[in-house]
Structure formats: structure tokens, C-alpha cells
Write a structure and sequence with these properties.
Elements lengths: L1 H19 L6 H14 L3 E6 L21 H7 L3 E7 L7 H25 L4 E3 L3 H9 L3 E8 L9 H8 L2 E5 L14 H4 L9 H13 L2 E3 L5 H10 L5 E2 L16 H10 L2 E5 L7 H22 L6 H5 L3 H18 L4 H6 L5 H15 L4 E4 L18 H9 L4 H27 L1
Parallel strand pairs: 1-2, 2-4, 3-4, 4-5, 5-6, 7-8, 8-9
Helix pairs in contact: 2-16, 8-17, 9-10, 11-13
């Protein structure tokens, strides 16, 4: 009798627990909830490269041109804020090189100025503070912000840092993929060639000046040793504007656990980057190897030289910018003809991207992680291949159980918090 009683009780409890468990959320309901979240949070992409050829009276971002970022694509995908990048390829470390690089930087500052003041003042506005961002979004316009990728154009005159700040720059990296006058870069790991023990003396002074004027220090490209020294020297939090987790993808551009811990202690933020070879190198290499013959065929059809991504990264100056453009053109032209290849060798996708967000959050906490694409500079993955697909990132985060509060932090609030703190430190130093 007791056995029957216990059996009945067990069955009753099982049915009770089952009845209390909510049914799985439907795909329709999940999408609806994700869209509501996407529309309510501030979405910030911290790294979008530009080409001055797309900032003319005839061709500009008011049109849905063949770029991963432009105003129509931002509108379609619900991307609120685009950090437009003043990037300069590395040249010689001499006066002639610095002069040419400075002109390149000013040309890009001028291009962004034309966009926000001449071509689309009623559609997009330049923001200098977090308050600007919120005000502009409330007005119904998109937001442009400016980051400087590679401080090479500063030359040896640190007064140029303040000049760049006055033009709107709110973050800057001290190097790109070559050693600069300020520090070693990450590529020293590959050839074991170094100019300094991390930062140069000029680099140390540049950190002080960036703190003083209120420019966020971007550690995405420099070497690990240089980055550790920057974090130790900086009186303000730092950012990695477009980097992912080295534990998941072992490339020199990603950040290892030691750096992640230092950035968290520093109060900074890591903007996870949607660049395929920095997310899943095994998948990327397999697809690339299978696609190489097609890419070469397309390059021949377009009458341009095919260079692999590693070859493009190792170029400098104008040659590198031209190679970036050609590389993107080849990939886009070949894309419709890759169906069979992609079925056999899957592309790196939004799930791979979210894996890095998950990892960074697990190591650092949700307050220290953000989102970036590196669009028009090599970035883009299946599911988030341009700004029009931005919602897919939010959808994947919702599927993984992130709350609206956490998604708001990841998409922008963490980055704006760092910007506020950097500017507060600058005010104190100036006073």
C-alpha cells in the first residue's frame, strides 16, 4: 500500500512540475520580442572604415551604394551609431611619411564633415559626447562618431592629438599592423621583429596627452606588451574598438585572458569584432581554401590582382587601401557563385560571433563587453554582413537568454560609460 502511495505521489509531482514549466517560446514570439528590444536600445558599432571616394557630391552615404555601411543600410538594420574611422596605412617613420599620413587623415576628417554638414545634415549628426548621442537619436537622426585607427599621422608633434580631438576624434590606436613611432604592433608575434619594449618614449607621452584631451585609448592593434603598458599608464579606462577572444581564436589581433582581466580592472570595454578570421579560424581557412580558385577566376574577370587576406594586411599606405577595396570587390562578386562551397564548408556566422560575446562576458562580466563589425575594412559574417542585418545580432543575443538590460549594455551603454569616464578624467587633468 505504501509503495502505491509513493508511486502515485511521484506521478502527481511529475505532472505538477510539468504543468508549471512554461512552453517553449515560438519563433514568432521570440522575433517580436527581439525586435522590440532592438528598437528600444541604442545600437553602436564602434568600427566602420571609410573611403573618401564615397564622400563626394556624386557618390555618398545618402545612397545605398556598394558599401557595408551607409544611411539606407543603417536605417534598414536599425543601427543608430556608426563610428567612422580615420584610418591611415603605415609608411616610413620620417618627416615625409608623417606629412603624407597627416594629409590622409585630414582628408578623412573632411569627408566625414561633408557627410554630416553638407550631404545629410537632416539624417545624421556628429556626436562628441554620450549626451550628444542620446539627443541626436531622440531627434530621429543617425549618429556619426570618429575613431582614429593608427596614430601614425600624428607624426612626432603631439599637439596634433588635440587637433584631431577638435575635429571630433574620440578614440585612437597608437599603431595598426606595422610598428609606429609610438609602439610595437601585434604582427611582431609573427616575425619576431620589434622596435621597442612595448611603448616608445613618445608613446608614453602620447598616452598622457590622450588622457589630457579626452580621447579613448584603443588597444585593438598594438602588441600585448604595449597594451599592458598603456593600461598601466592610463589614468582613464581604455577600449579595444574591434577585437575578440584569443582563447576561442588564437590570432595576434585577439586579446588573451590576462589582457581581459587587466581591461576589466581598468574599467574599460572590449568591442567584440565580427571579422571571420578573428572568430573561427578553422571554418574561415576551410572555406577560403575551397574558394580560392573561384576568387582567382573572379579577380581575372575583374582584371584585378587577387591577394589573400594575410597579404593585404602586410601591405601599407595607398597599396593597402587599394587592396582592401579589391579584396571586398572580389568577395562580393564571387558570393552568388559560392552556394555549393558554403554548403560543404560553412561560413563564419552570427553564432560564432555570439560565442565570443558569451566568452568575454563569462570572463569579464556584461559591463565590460561591446559590439563592433569592422565593416568596409574586412569585417562581416554570415547573418551580419552589412548594417542592414544588424537586427540579427540582437536576435541571437535574445535566443541566448540575454536580458534587455544586458543587451542595452552590450550594444552601447558600456561604450558610452567609458567615454564619459575618459572625458571626466580629462576635465580633472585640465583643471
Amino acid at each position: 500500500m505504501k509503495l502505491q502511495h509513493y508511486t502515485f505521489l511521484l506521478i502527481f509531482l511529475s505532472f505538477s512540475l510539468f504543468a508549471q514549466s512554461p512552453p517553449p517560446e515560438s519563433e514568432y514570439s521570440l522575433n517580436k520580442r527581439a525586435k522590440k528590444i532592438h528598437e528600444s536600445v541604442i545600437t553602436i558599432d564602434t568600427h566602420n572604415d571609410i573611403n573618401v571616394k564615397n564622400f563626394t557630391d556624386e557618390v555618398n552615404y545618402t545612397q545605398n551604394i556598394d558599401t557595408q555601411v551607409n544611411l539606407p543600410k543603417m536605417e534598414e538594420g536599425g543601427l543608430d551609431v556608426s563610428w567612422l574611422i580615420v584610418y591611415t596605412g603605415q609608411g616610413k617613420l620620417d618627416k615625409e611619411g608623417y606629412k603624407k599620413a597627416y594629409k590622409n587623415a585630414i582628408d578623412k576628417f573632411d569627408a566625414i564633415d561633408r557627410l554630416v554638414n553638407d550631404y545629410a545634415p537632416d539624417q545624421i549628426e556628429l556626436a562628441l559626447t554620450s549626451a550628444d548621442v542620446k539627443r541626436i537619436i531622440t531627434s530621429g537622426k543617425k549618429v556619426a562618431m570618429i575613431g582614429v585607427e593608427n596614430a601614425y599621422p600624428v607624426g612626432e608633434n603631439l599637439k596634433n592629438i588635440e587637433k584631431f580631438h577638435k575635429r571630433g576624434a574620440r578614440y585612437m590606436s597608437l599603431a595598426h599592423n606595422c610598428h609606429s613611432q609610438f609602439c610595437n604592433t601585434n604582427t611582431g608575434e609573427e616575425d619576431d621583429v620589434w622596435l621597442y619594449n612595448g611603448l616608445s618614449d613618445l608613446g608614453r607621452k602620447a598616452i598622457e596627452e590622450m588622457n589630457r584631451v579626452g580621447i579613448m585609448i584603443d588597444i585593438s592593434h598594438p602588441s600585448k606588451e604595449a597594451n599592458m603598458q598603456m593600461i598601466q599608464l592610463s589614468k582613464a579606462p581604455v577600449i579595444a574598438s574591434h577585437s575578440s577572444a584569443r582563447a576561442l581564436c588564437d590570432v595576434s589581433r585577439n586579446l588573451d585572458d590576462q589582457l581581459l582581466a587587466m581591461i576589466k580592472t581598468n574599467g574599460g570595454v572590449v568591442q567584440t569584432v565580427a571579422l571571420n578570421s578573428y572568430l573561427n579560424l578553422e571554418k574561415y581557412d576551410a572555406n577560403m581554401a575551397a574558394s580560392k580558385d573561384l576568387y582567382k577566376e573572379v579577380a581575372k574577370e575583374l582584371d584585378i590582382e587577387f591577394l589573400e587576406w594575410d597579404d593585404v594586411k602586410n601591405l601599407s599606405g595607398d597599396a593597402q587601401e587599394a587592396a582592401y577595396t579589391n579584396y571586398e570587390k572580389i568577395l562580393k562578386t564571387a558570393s552568388p557563385r559560392k552556394k555549393d562551397i558554403n554548403a560543404k564548408f560553412p561560413l563564419v556566422n552570427v553564432k560564432d560571433f555570439a560565442n565570443h560575446i558569451d566568452y568575454l562576458v563569462s570572463k569579464m562580466g556584461v559591463d565590460y563587453v561591446g559590439i563592433s563589425s569592422d565593416f568596409d575594412g574586412g569585417g562581416g559574417i554570415e547573418g551580419w554582413d552589412d548594417a542592414s542585418e544588424t537586427f540579427n545580432v540582437t536576435l541571437e543575443l535574445v535566443k541566448r537568454g540575454y536580458s534587455e538590460e544586458d543587451i542595452a549594455k552590450l550594444w552601447g551603454l558600456n561604450l558610452l560609460r567609458v567615454l564619459d569616464e575618459v572625458q571626466e578624467v580629462a576635465l580633472k587633468l585640465q583643471n
